Amino acid sequence: MEENKVLIKGKNIQLRTTVKSDMDLKVRWYNDPDVNKTLVLPEKLELNKTYEWFEKTQKETNRFDMVIETIDGVPIGVIGLKNINKNNRSALLYIVIGEKDFWGKGLGLQAELLAIHYGFEALGLHRVLGTALENNPASIAVCKKVGFVLEGTSRDDYYKDGIFYNVHKYSILKDEFYEKHPDYNKTQTKAVLLDKTEKPEPSRKEYVVIRGKDLSLRPLEEKDLETKVKWINDPDVHKYLHYRLPLDIEKTKQWYRKIVSDLSRYDFVIEKQDYGPIGLIGLLDIDRFHEIAEFYITLGEKQYWNKGFGQQALNILIDWAFRHLNLYKIWGTARTTNLASISMIKKVGFKIEGTLKQEKKVGEKRVDVARVGLLRDNYRPAKNK
Is 336 a member of any domain? Predict the structure, then answer.
């Protein structure tokens, strides 16, 4: 027996996963003349071909299809996100209310809000697109109520029954959606989403070598610990760091054995292609639900200071973290007296969010640090990372 799963509940409707038996309903709905006249469909659906289409889509990762149900489980239509672009984190929304008895009750709007919310919070989207035929005023009205922004109109973009129709193209961004619909904001996510509310924790740490133009970041290994201790204990290096000094190699090995399987952090060695290790970089306190982490960076080889390698390494890490860990924000700190480090961080795109007075203790002194932050939406990848 097929199993379907409710993904998200609203006030009057819910969205669930699609199963093969739903294709019977889909064919009936799409072939209804009253429904079909506002759809971008070249021909009527055939049941066997629709079954084949369903089996094919089960292997695809660029779409997410759902059934719209009443709260008591009566299917009334379909909705989904297709043309999902994981790199740009965008997708195209579609919806069909097939049961005509449920037209004009505001359920299409509810379904779109739920699907868009699901796309932003469970699928990690940043931008949702929408379309409406010019002869479908109800669909246009719903787009406006959702908060879609009209990006343009494709003239004579759809031909049906001897007539060319214009197609309106819309989009809405994540921040725009939650500003217009605060009831769907992130604090409500756990109460609304019934699946994928928590970002799944990886079963093991997936380390990779991340390559840039002149540098690569590779996972920190136990063999690197003596070099780490040497760098951190160098007076010229540690005068801007927050370590309790001096570092001891045996304690550092004990530390490494604890963090090597710690899923809340990633630690890398910065390697220059024609030289070898020149520093350390990584992410700490990774919060996968809130999509946030703290970065750190230390260039230990002093001959490579002030030559742009710190900026290049940070660009490589930030780009990887936003793309592959799906983080939304990365933050960090730097001593207010470390003007070179603050300048480098700002060149990557970080903004100073404030000064933390006497935040860190260095020896017997307490020092001020600047807190910096960078949102994924504001990040502009460097051309030559």
Answer: yes
**What are 333's two structure tokens?**
């700190």
Dist CA 112 CA 142 (whole Å): 9
Domain coverage including residue 29: 6-192
230 and 178 housed in the same domain: no
CB 217 within 8 Å of CB 283: no
In a domain, 205, yes or no: no
Burial 189-214 (b: 16+ CB within 10 A, else e): beebbbeeeebeeeeeeeeeebebeb
Residue 48 lies in a domain: yes
pTM: 0.52
Claim to verify: residue 46 and residue 175 sit in the same structural domain: yes
What 3-state DSSP class applies to 50?
helix
Tally of helices (H runs) and strands (E runs) in the chain: 12, 16
Q: What is the pLDDT along the chain (385 residues), one digit of tens a residue?
A: 456 788 888 888 999 999 999 999 999 999 999 988 877 765 789 999 999 999 988 878 889 999 999 988 999 999 999 999 877 889 999 999 999 999 999 999 999 999 999 898 888 889 999 999 888 888 899 999 999 999 999 999 888 778 898 999 999 999 899 899 987 765 444 445 554 434 444 545 667 789 888 899 999 999 999 999 999 999 888 877 766 678 899 999 999 998 888 888 999 999 998 899 999 999 998 887 678 999 999 999 999 999 999 999 999 999 999 988 888 899 999 888 888 899 999 999 999 998 888 766 666 678 788 899 999 989 988 765 5
C-alpha to C-alpha distance for 135 and 194, rounded to whole angstroms: 36
Distances (CA, A) of 232 to 101, 229, 250: 71, 5, 15
Q: What is the DSSP string of 151-210?
A: EEEEEEEEEETTEEEEEEEEEEEHHHHHHH-GGGSGGGHHHHB-SS-SPPPPSS-----E
Question: How far is CA 244 from its chain centroid?
Answer: 36
Q: What is the CATH number of the domain that holds 260?
A: 3.40.630.30
Same domain, 244 and 330: yes
Q: Looking at the structure, do residues 23 and 146 belong to the same domain, yes or no?
A: yes
The domain total for the chain is 2
Burial class (CB in 10 A: 0-12, 13-18, 19+), 113: buried
Q: Are 264 and 284 in contact (CB under 8 A)?
A: yes
